[in-house]
Design brief:
alpha/beta; Rossmann fold; 5-stranded parallel β-sheet; two-stranded antiparallel sheet; about 30% helix; about 20% strand; NAD; Met8-like; precorrin-2 dehydrogenase; precorrin-2 dehydrogenase activity; EC 1.3.1.76
């Protein structure tokens, strides 16, 4: 049973916290940058791409727990215990996406296609992200062959 309702949220100016600075955080941050949120990354280390974004002032990188409040918290460390502690700290204070516990997530980031003014989102409610990716790739191929123009 699907328990989440698809909704497009205005992210411009929203305060986003990413706990963890690895490949998962980088992928999610890249997908959100065009929406112009205020992104803070809390992690002892971050990827080279995230370091570049921090140096350009596109995102903020910190190694200490931020004092400001956040609208959304994305938890994506490789440490399950840390993920759980961060989840418990922010539970009820922000909407949470926790990479290693889809059931605990308040929301998921669907596989998304943006083509002009058309936005297509595909989700399996967090149960099979690779299936969503495969469907997205097939739809992208169809669109590239003029599928939306027919």
């Amino acid at each position: 049973m699907i328990t989440r309702y698809p909704i497009l949220m205005k992210m411009q100016g929203k305060q986003l916290l990413f706990v963890g600075g690895g490949a998962v955080a980088e992928r999610k941050i890249n997908s959100l940058l065009a929406c112009d949120p205020a992104i803070t990354v809390l992690s002892p280390e971050i990827t080279e791409k995230l370091q570049s974004l921090a140096q350009l002032g596109v995102i903020k990188w910190t190694t200490e727990l931020p004092t400001e409040t956040f609208d959304y918290v994305f938890i994506a460390t490789n440490e399950r215990e840390i993920n759980k502690e961060v989840y418990e700290f922010y539970k009820g204070k922000a909407l949470i996406n926790i990479a290693d516990d889809p059931e605990a997530c308040d929301f998921h980031l669907p596989a998304t296609i943006i083509h002009g003014d058309v936005v297509i989102s595909i989700s399996t409610d967090g149960t099979d992200p690779s299936k969503s990716k495969r469907i997205r790739e097939k739809l992208e191929e169809w669109i590239s062959q003029g599928g939306l123009e027919q």
